[in-house]
Structures are given as C-alpha cells and as structure tokens.
Amino acid sequence: MKTLQPVEVVKQVNEGNILTPKGFKADGAHAGLRYEKKDVGVIYTETPASSAAVYTKNIVQAAPIAVTKDSISQEGKLHGIIVNSACANACTGEQGLKDAYEMRKLAAEKFGVSEHLFAVASTGVIGELLDMEKIANGIQALNPTTERVSAESFETAILTTDLVSKHCGYEAIIDGKKVSMGGAAKGSGMIHPNMATMLGFITTDAVIESTDLHAALREVTNDTFNQITVDGDCSTNDMVLVLANGEAGNEPLSSTHPEWPVFIEMLKQTAETLAKKIAKDGEGATKLIEVNVHGMKTKPEAQMMGKTIVGSNLVKTAAYGADANWGRIIAAMGRSGVTFNPREATIAFGDIVVLKDGEPVAFSEEDAKVYLEQDSFTINVYLKEGTESGTAWGCDLTYEYVKINGSYRS
Amino acid sequence: MKTLQPVEVVKQVNEGNILTPKGFKADGAHAGLRYEKKDVGVIYTETPASSAAVYTKNIVQAAPIAVTKDSISQEGKLHGIIVNSACANACTGEQGLKDAYEMRKLAAEKFGVSEHLFAVASTGVIGELLDMEKIANGIQALNPTTERVSAESFETAILTTDLVSKHCGYEAIIDGKKVSMGGAAKGSGMIHPNMATMLGFITTDAVIESTDLHAALREVTNDTFNQITVDGDCSTNDMVLVLANGEAGNEPLSSTHPEWPVFIEMLKQTAETLAKKIAKDGEGATKLIEVNVHGMKTKPEAQMMGKTIVGSNLVKTAAYGADANWGRIIAAMGRSGVTFNPREATIAFGDIVVLKDGEPVAFSEEDAKVYLEQDSFTINVYLKEGTESGTAWGCDLTYEYVKINGSYRS
C-alpha cells in the first residue's frame, strides 16, 4: 500500500470526535496541575464497553499503565477512562502506584461504578508525584455531556506541548446498522515506534468482544501509531485505548464476521488519522513528512526503512530547510538494518525523482524547494528487492524543538 | 571500566599529532573545492607502512572506501593516504568509482609509488561528482614535511563543519625502544556507532604486521569510535586508518608479544582521545556528555544503553538547557533494548544522585545546573544486573545544529 485508501463504505464524519458514536460522554476540567489549562479529562459510557489497549514497550512503565492493565484484565470492560496531563506519574515508586489506584477509585466513585471498570492515563513530566488533592478536586469538577464542547474540553485537557487538539470520526454500515467511531489523541515529544508520549482514545458503538477488539487494535497499531516518530524517544506512558459500548446493535464483530474488514478499515482510518495528526504536531514541527518505501521483501522491512528515514535528524533538519538533500535519505536507508542493493535505489520527493537506479538525476532545485516548503510532503523510495511496501510519518526538526526541550521542566 | 585510565607506561605527548612518530610527513592544500579553506590533504611515509582500516557499516558505501579496501587488500601496506573534504564522492555511480581510482593514481604518481600503496578518503556532500581538475591541481600543490605546521595543514584540510582540528600523540617504551603514535580526525555531523562521517587517521612507528594491526584496531574501535554519537546518523564514508611504518625498531608486535597490552593501550588512548574530540565538536554542540553504565550483565549491553542515553534528542536538548531532567534518561534506558529492573536503577549527574533504586531523590537543582553548565559532564547509571560497565560519548543538541543542517548544501 502507498497510504491507506478509504474503503468506500467507511465515511469520515465531518468534525467527528470521541462523542460521534452513541452513548459516550466526555469532559475536561482544570484541576490546577497547570496554571490555567485544563488538565483532567474523562470519557464515560453508561453501557460498559468492551475494552482493549496497547501500551508502550518501554521497560520503564508508568504507574497508570499498571492500573489500566489491571482494570482491563478483570472483565475486559470499562465504563470509562480518567486522564491527567502535566504529570506522568512515572518513576514515582510505590507512592506513584498508590496514587494511580486512588485516581481510579476517585473516578469510579464519582460515577458510581466499580473501580475495575475505570482506566487511568497520565502524561507530563516524569519523576514527580501527582498532587492528589488537585486530582480529587479536578475529578469532582468533571461534568461529562454528549455535546461537542465536552469532547473539545477532553481533547484540550490531555494535551502537553501539543499545539492543537487531535480528533476524528468515521462511520460505516455493518449488519445494516450505522456503526460509528471517534478518536482523540495527544502526542508531541517522545514519539517513536512502539508507542511514545502518545495517548490515543478511540470510542465506538460497535458490538465486539474485548478479545476481538484487542486483535483488531494490534493489527492496526503496527501500521499506524507504531509508524510515527517525532524524535526517536519512546515514553513510559504511551497507551492507545479502545472502548466499544455496543450501542450500534450490530451482530458481534469477529474475524469470521463478513463485515470484519469494514470494521478493521474504520479502525485503521481512525488510528492513521490520529497518528498523522500527532506526527504533524510534533514538538516544534512545521510540517508532516510521509515516507513510502516500495519494493521490499517484507512489509516490516519496508516499514523499518521508512521509520529510519523519517527519524533521521539530518533528514528532519533538511526538511525544515526545504533542502532536497537526498544523500541523507540514502545514508539513512543504508544504516536502517535492512538489506538492499543501493544500485537499484530510486528516490523521489513526491514525483520529483532525484536518484534513479543508484545514480543522481538532474532535477530542478527550485521545484524541489517549492514542493518541500509545503506543510506536508512525501518521500518515495523504490527498491527492487520484492513487492512489499510500508509507510512511516514524522516531522521536521526545528529551532523550536530545541527551545521547547532545552527547558521543558522550567 | 569507568573510562579508560592511562596505563603509566603510555604517555601523552604535548601537542602530539600524526607527525609525532618517526618517518611521517603530511600536508594540506587548497584545491578549490571550497572557496578558501584547505580541502586536500596527504599523509606520507617513505617506509611503506603496515596498514589496517575499519569502515562504515552503512550498506551504502562511498567510492573511496572501495578504493582503500582494494589498496590494503593487496599487500597490507601503504605509503600514504590522500583525502579531500567538501565532496564525499558517495552515490556517484561508476563515474564516482573511476574518480576515486584516478585520485589514488594522481597521489601515487606525485610521490612516485605504486597505486595500490595509496589509500583514498573523502568527506562532504553526498551525490555530487568530484571536480577532478581541482583535485589534480590540489594534489600537485601538496608539499609534505615533518614540521608541525604541515600536520596542522592536514588537520585543517580534512574538516567539514568541524569547528576545531583534532589531534593527539602518545608514546611508550616497547622492547626498550620509544614507540610513538599520533592521530588526526574529523567528525561533526552524521556521527553514530559503527563509524559515521568520521575520518580517523592514526600513525605509528611501531613494528607490527598488517593482520595484527587490524586485530588491534578492531579491538579498540568498539570501545572508542563506535561509542560516540552526534546525531544518530551514520555516514557512507567513515574510515579509521592506521599506518605503522616500523621505524621505531621494536620486535614485531602481536598478541604473543609481552608488551602487546602497552601497544593496545596506546592505540586505545589515541582512539578514545580522537573520539571524544569528535563528540565534543559535534555539529552545533556546546558540550561533551559522557555516559557510564555500571552493573550490567555484559559490556555490549552497557555500551548499548550508554549510546541510547547519549543519543536521545531529549537528553541532548536537556543537556543544552543544563536541565537535570533524569526522567528522559530512564525513558531512554527503558527503550534501549537492554533488560534491567527499573526499581534497582540509580542515576547521577556526576556525583549528584537524582534517582536511587528506582525512587526519586531530593537534590539541589541549583547544584545540578552548575554541574550541567560545564563544557563537559558525566551521567552515571548504576544497575544491579551484573558487573560489566560501558561508556559512550555524545554532545548536546542545539539551535546551531538545526541551523547548520537546515541548509548544509547551500
């Protein structure tokens, strides 16, 4: 695949969000972990939702990850998730774990449900304890509704150094019923394969068991969230959570359901849209870079090469400068760990071919500059090792990234 | 080992350089590949030298690498090496390979020696052909001597975006004879494990066969040149070359020679000094970061973790901001691919412990800031997985890096 193409039966919902599917409510509030910005958010469904999540592969995992794993492990069901920004509650020892369980309890009490039916997520600075008094007050202040403004409140509350909130919505007909899906995400720094300071929340009213939902999520994550990189760093707190409350009334979805591919496609669209929004809004980024690698023996190889290219600081700074410096691309390909014949390599910025079968091609630097100055561009790599392709997304590396990260804590 | 400690018998030579050993000459000249700066350099020894080299592991290797491999493969001997900066002669196809052979021939003719007794190295922009007329004129202009000023000319001629020239010299007594060693290097961008746009040239008057020299070089490279990173990128042109002309008159060195460890130590000192100078002068860098990882099961694991930490953009930007953001260090450790128990992790900036057995420790942010504002500082990581240690070196990530690389070609 070049990029995921919308299957016709899956339709994007204009201004869709986590409240696009039936039965979900959300809100965000200001708990005071930050001076002004909302910093606590909730997604809630009265009908318990089948749940599935994927987590950071970092060996160091924050306390809320342990708590969410515990919740989902019990029944595979959730009423909702409570999230805070500003403090990651990571590397906070026993106290941090107690605090994460307490946060879950406070949310469950607020909504009158069992503790194990709530998930917890945190994002922000590592190594500082949560201010639990503020968290408690923030949770009390939450007042979830089904209105768009409530989704916006949630989307804002989960941001850290993100500049824009990230959301999308899709719908499809399954078993003659309208099934909807919505998503919200935050990203920015520490974004790299295998999840990063990335939180993704996907809601759907589809009927699906937790185990099938988990299978679908895993399948989709490898091609979407795990194919973005902002800075190569991978956080302690990453999580993508899907809640399926079943209110659409379709027949239970599983791999034997004839319309399973439609559901997978909808989940893919949602995940890819969120992932690309995260990449584009990487810390200090001014543009989205898409890398498509064609003609590899296997898809994972194509994906790995794509990630190496889009993760190269030299490619990223050249992108910032709109400099058609393809030498850095082939150098990144060569160190990607993937075997290929450089004499058969072709590289193009969009349609502008700069290297053809391993030999430099004369091209208009001016045209290339115009192309690379767009707020989104594509690098295409063609090899002759096989027929598999893979895509990765990232962003440019700018002064602003250095500024943001030179003194993030202050 | 924490860092390599000087063995007493190996002494640093004040202002030592590639001309510290007997019998070597050098020079640099202005061929006109750049406007003003010297851009062609030579090292020459009248007595043919046993030679050994290690090269980039990038699949894409520049033409001069092929030529140097060809030269050394023939007799394991060299009279010298001809180097140019400004143009890497990489990804230049058949013409590039012809040009690299022609460059070797021009140098050999100039000095009246066989072609295969000259090595070739290039560094600079990828994908552009060498201007052979300028190269020919530059080679003609070379006039190597044994004077310090000639070593300085060579050191200058090989630089690209480096700000300072890099050299060192050592001596030791072996078999009652004074054996000397000197080195010159260039680095700056695209510096990462497995060689990068890094050229290292080491001269010695030791008597040693080419195969033994190669074994020594390989042993030392893994702990030195391969443990530095500037930006995670790895070039198409990296090479470290050692020339041993035997003029010291010691008994031939090999692993059975009683003073073999002295020679290894001298080579290690030379390589480590050059490697650290490269890291410190990374593109846009303002400081050298040393990371020591202690208590790992194996040395390669300790080295890999060290490299991951010192290669993290988030650690690098925090270093720039003198921000004691240890959360980024443990996050990097967690994604390093090395297994460890985070609850036993201790992290210190120099002696300032910030995480002890997985729990945050109160520390003076002010003291930490003062420590991190130095032009060189150390991150110490202590684990309890085993008894092995490893060291890596890198630099901070600054506005200047982005500036340099946003428009390197223009």
UniProtKB/TrEMBL annotation, chains A, B:
List ligand-binding residues for substrate. 160, 186, 197, 283, 405, 410
UniProt pathway annotation: Amino-acid biosynthesis; L-arginine biosynthesis; N(2)-acetyl-L-ornithine from L-glutamate: step 1/4; Amino-acid biosynthesis; L-arginine biosynthesis; L-ornithine and N-acetyl-L-glutamate from L-glutamate and N(2)-acetyl-L-ornithine (cyclic): step 1/1
Q: Which InterPro entries match?
A: Arg_biosynth_ArgJ, ArgJ-like_dom_sf, ArgJ_beta_C
The record's Gene Ontology cellular component field reads: cytoplasm
EC number(s) in its UniProt entry? 2.3.1.35, 2.3.1.1
Q: Where is this site: Involved in the stabilization of negative charge on the oxyanion by the formation of the oxyanion hole?
A: 123-124
- Keywords linked to the UniProt accession: Acyltransferase, Amino-acid biosynthesis, Arginine biosynthesis, Autocatalytic cleavage, Cytoplasm, Multifunctional enzyme, Transferase
Sites marked Cleavage: 196-197
Q: Which residues form the signal peptide?
A: none
Active site: which residues? Answer: 197
Gene3D superfamilies linked: arginine biosynthesis bifunctional protein suprefamily (3.30.2330.10), ArgJ beta chain, C-terminal domain (3.10.20.340), L-amino peptidase D-ALA esterase/amidase (3.60.70.12)
> According to its UniProt record, where is this protein located?
Cytoplasm
A molecular function GO annotation: L-glutamate N-acetyltransferase activity, acting on acetyl-L-ornithine as donor
Q: Which GO terms describe its biological process?
A: L-arginine biosynthetic process; ornithine biosynthetic process
Catalysed reaction(s) here are: N(2)-acetyl-L-ornithine + L-glutamate = N-acetyl-L-glutamate + L-ornithine; L-glutamate + acetyl-CoA = N-acetyl-L-glutamate + CoA + H(+)
Complexes and interactors: Heterotetramer of two alpha and two beta chains.
UniProt record similarity statement: Belongs to the ArgJ family.
What role does it play? Answer: Catalyzes two activities which are involved in the cyclic version of arginine biosynthesis: the synthesis of N-acetylglutamate from glutamate and acetyl-CoA as the acetyl donor, and of ornithine by transacetylation between N(2)-acetylornithine and glutamate.
Q: What is this protein called?
A: Arginine biosynthesis bifunctional protein ArgJ
Gene this protein is translated from: argJ
